[in-house]
Amino acid sequence: MAKSKATAFFCKECGYESSKWMGQCPACKAWNSFVEAPAAGKGALPGKGGAVARESAEPCTLDQVPAERETRISTGFGELDNVLGGGLVPASLLLVGGDPGIGKSTLLLQVCRNLAADGRSVLYISGEESLRQIRLRANRIGTITGNLRFLCETNLDTVAHVLEKYRPEVVVIDSIQTMYREDASGAPGSVGQVRESTNVLLQLAKGLGITIFIVGHVTKEGTVAGPRMLEHMVDTVLYFEGERSASYRILRGVKNRFGSTNEIGVFEMAEEGLREVKNPSEFLLSGRPEGASGSVVACAMEGTRPILLEIQALVCRTNFGMPRRTAAGTDYNRVNLLMAVLEKRLGLRLSECDAYVNIAGGMRISEPSLDLGIVTALVSSYQDRPVDDSLLVFGEVGLSGEVRAVSMAEQRVAEAVKLGFETCVLPQSNRAAMKKDYPVRLIGVRNVQEAMAVLEGNAGRKGGAADGKV
């Protein structure tokens, strides 16, 4: 009687392997993350048992490696190129994750169309849609020209044979959870199959010099489904974010071996597909109410890009014994901290009020530079005093009420000038460090008391020279 194949337990988060099930992973400390999968067989050592010995493999020094600058491939989307650090790097493996229906397949199909129109050979492999369904989706984004081929296949061995035969420059795999290998155990989408499939694609990308996009499903926590080691294997990890009810989408780089991970790309979902948003600040501020209390414009940094956004606050008397606090788009605990600072340093009786804070447009920002904007919006709503529509604020607020300096202050002011703001309230230390003159009234503040003096009337004054302090 044949002996059954041994099984092992793998952590879905980090890939840690154990011979028995464990409640908590000893490597990443995640709870209930172990799943059962067949253990990998112990193959023959290189050079024995039929394995091919690679006698030609020789180590080398860095001086022997060509030092030419790597040529990047433009995707046709400036926003995507910016997130990737300048474009696609040949022979790289990229993972794109996001919620179902967010637009991952649409984005990659448009990228394939742009690359094919630029003379590149592209192959789009789908394991979730038929060729007819792909054509119906392609008709929506426009005419496709050039060397763009489509294949519906889930057998990774067949996919590898096609890649070796046609040698395309760019390949899209949609999605990795549908791919399977016949010699690997487990159903498609299981830990073992995803790990083995990604490993094969990694070898194909490096060996054949092909740039491969793989689409990954996400869990309810918002992370890519499958073992955590999947993100360690690839060169770049991109997350496509956004609310389904909103038209905009944000592409965020979580890992990038060839560029920064602080950049974002903003897209808008239109009838003909995804469209780039060149100026996210103008897009996020559209529809802002005029002369309304509790509304103020602040500036946050996403990588090297300044983004102006509207912070809304609503403070009203509570009808319950315990006041309610709600924060949408920012850190809830940070809002509670700032309200405690206002109650202690300004004497506002916020403990008797419900407070609601919202970042308009659905953006989620946790940068400390929004502290002064949140404080200003809360006080404006509490006093029912509108903030001047031409006023911009940014700065970090400490527990003693001081306004601390933030990074890239000059880029934030330059963005305010570009969008026509007339007054900018910023930390005094940032104001003192500025050497360039801007056509905007700059007001440096040292603490929240000085910032609230601006709210009480100084910000409404038009014109005048730049001030050092209130």
How would you state the average pLDDT, rounded?
Answer: 85
Helix content bin:
25-40%
* Unreliable residue stretches: 41-54, 458-470
> What is the CA-CA span between the terminal residues?
88 Å
Give the total of beta strands. 21
**Tally of contiguous helical segments:** 12
**Derived structural class:** alpha/beta
Strand order of the largest sheet: 6-5-7-8-4-9-10-11-12
From the alpha-carbon coordinates, what is the Rg to the nearest angstrom? Answer: 27 Å
Gross geometry: globular
Beta-strand portion reads 15-25%
Q: State the major sheet.
A: 9 strands, mixed
List keywords for this structure.
globular; alpha/beta; disordered C terminus; 470 residues; single chain; nine-stranded mixed β-sheet
Describe what you observe in this structure.
With about 475 residues, the protein is an alpha/beta fold. Helix content is about 25%, strand content about 25%. The strands form 4 sheets. A 9-stranded mixed sheet has the order 6-5-7-8-4-9-10-11-12. A 7-stranded mixed sheet has the order 15-16-14-13-17-20-21. α3 (about 130-140) links the parallel β5 (about 120-125) and β6 (about 150). Mean pLDDT is about 85; it is low at about 40-55 and about 460-470.
